[in-house]
Specification:
The radius of gyration is 18 Å and the shape is globular. The chain has one domain (2-251): YmcC-like fold, CATH 2.40.360. It is built from 2 helices and 15 strands. 9% of the residues lie in helices and 49% in strands. By secondary structure, it is mainly beta. The longest helix is centred in the N-terminal third of the chain and has 13 residues, at 17-29. It has a 15-stranded antiparallel β-sheet that branches.
Length: 255
């Protein structure tokens, strides 16, 4: 984390006291708040549409093969959680770029509480960009109670963010979401040889990332990715008690 360490030390110039030092130590350990790194992460502009693959996403750390269905189970705030993510056969043009549409639904204790359409696109060199989401949280009757967090690149100042590079390595941080005040997730690679155990596998070759957002500065999430599969585990390590792990991966052919 040489580059990131330098950024954090530079940011300490205007800070004093033990609280600042404690915050720095936490960030370097991958469990501290987001207040240091987020402000230093550059805003990146996505390439022109000609640089993208027209909906194909085959980055080995985050492949989205149309028809693949991921099922995750875990807990959130004491509730049993189930998350089903489907890489659909649909595409949508967002900000001039053809994106793969991913349909994501979340249940708590058997009740559908959230549904989201996410939009991803990949450059010809393998970088996956996140172009936005249409999300809705639902009440106990299935009615939409909020669409907070929704954004589309190119609308109301929102920009696409980098979700995954082709050859991730420790050091730089990236804005996955770039809609100030609404969606501002930032991720940093912690290690490339992480150990992760989920019902489908036990491996010492996972990619571990640290995710934060200035909208919830005390919350830190860790995500584990496995090559040619994608996300296999998510866990809140600071500021919450949410966890999910991959329990099934199937493929549905196009009808």
């Amino acid at each position: 984390m040489n580059r990131r360490t330098t950024t954090l030390l530079t940011g300490l110039t205007g800070l004093t006291g033990l609280a600042a030092l404690a915050g720095l130590v936490g960030v370097l350990a991958g469990t501290g708040p987001a207040s240091y790194a987020a402000a230093e992460v550059p805003h990146r502009v996505h390439p022109s549409p000609s640089h993208f693959t027209h909906g194909r996403v085959d980055n080995r750390w985050f492949p989205l093969k149309p028809g693949d269905r991921y099922v995750y189970r875990g807990k959130e705030d004491g509730a049993h959680s189930r998350d089903v993510l489907i890489a659909t056969y649909r595409t949508r043009v967002v900000d001039g770029v053809t994106c793969r549409v991913v349909f994501d639904r979340v249940w708590h204790n058997g009740r559908l509480v959230e549904r989201t359409h996410d939009f991803y696109a990949q450059t010809r060199t393998g970088t996956v960009w996140y172009f936005g989401e249409r999300t809705a949280t639902l009440d106990r009757h299935g009615r939409v109670k909020s669409r907070e967090g929704s954004f589309m690149s190119g609308v109301d100042g929102a920009q696409a963010g980098i979700f995954m590079t082709p050859h991730p390595h420790r050091g730089p941080s990236y804005r996955q979401e770039d809609y100030p005040g609404h969606a501002e997730d930032v991720y940093t690679v912690v290690r490339r040889d992480a150990h992760v155990v989920v019902p489908l596998m036990d491996t010492h070759h996972a990619l571990l990332t640290r995710e934060t957002t200035p909208l919830e500065p005390d919350v830190v999430d860790h995500k584990y990715y496995v090559r040619d599969i994608g996300t296999v585990r998510e866990v809140t390590v600071t500021g919450g008690n949410e966890s999910l792990e991959l329990v099934a991966l199937t493929h549905r052919p196009r009808r």
